Description:
The chain contains ten helices and 16 strands. By secondary structure, it is an alpha/beta fold. The strands form four sheets. The chain has a seven-stranded mixed sheet with strand order 12-11-10-13-14-15-16, with helices on both faces. It has a five-stranded parallel sheet with strand order 1-4-7-8-9, sandwiched between helices. The longest helix is centred in the first third of the chain and has 14 residues, at about 15-25.
Amino acid sequence: MQKLGIIALESARNAGQQIDAILSGWRGGEHFLVPAQCPRFGSGEAKGIVMESVRDRDIYVLVDVCNPSVSYKMDGITNRMSPDDHFQDLKRVIAACNGKAGRITVIMPFLYESRQHRRTGRESLDCAMMLQELENMGVHDIITFDAHDSRVQNAIPFSGFEDVSPALQFTQALLTEYEDLKIDTEHMMFISPDEGATQRVVFLASIFGVNIGMFYKRRDYSTIVDGMNPIIAHDFCGESVEGKDVIVVDDMISSGGSIIDVAKQLKDRGAARVFVFATFGLFTNGFEKFDSAYSQGLFDRVFTTNLIYQKPELLQKDWYFSVGMNRYVAAIIDNLNRGGSMTEISRPAERIKEMVEIYRGKNA
Length: 364
């Protein structure tokens, strides 16, 4: 087993400290954080600095490319860091390791440029280029969560790519928070808000033993707005949701318009309670829409993980539940450092099924 080292970029500093504390508790008090930073010159240019030796160590680099709270000064003006800036800092720190680390694993919960994963016209393929760039820099493995489309790993067929599902943690949160759920086909359904989320929904619905429904995004392909074809409507495919608790599952909430529209349609169709599972809560347009929708009774709870930066205001919302993932990330690092398999950790179907059966037994 190689000596473990964790480099947490500024975007993931808090998570890195908590993960280190968890690992320290498991491993007899030893700490594993390797100090590193990316200072800026007055021109806005930067460099990566690793402040202790990483020679022959098993290094895990944590980065949150969606953290807008980190800033830097350029020409005396404060700028918030974009995903592009965070990715550049990631490369700087990898380069600062000088090829001396025994193995480098990048833990990037929100996969950088994952929404630009395919080409439909004269477009760039940013996610594929990013993965190949990391591979060329000597990165051995990339750990991400609920990738927008995991098939993008085909861009690096000879490197490790682990797409981890947070389904277990979502299940734990829901079943712990609500004690009156009836898990059967008469009282519960999982809902895909679009065709892209169907695989996630099928996975959870199969374990819970309930049915699924799906919304289809009807778009205006004759128009492009902000680089995309605008959504005209969400059309529903599936059996009746009347009187059932429904769980909408998606990889992210961006502006939230689609999720709120889906929730409204489900309530209009007679759904009892509407819960939302979304791995990443970006809330790029703020919370006003969600506050209004919640006050109208369109949904009951939104669950997202703490894998990316969470705005302090979000954590105060009555309709929000933060699903903690630091212990899970620590378990992944511990497992990989010991040479273990990722199969059961990345998609823990048996553990979820066992949890559902225990819940059913308690509420029988």
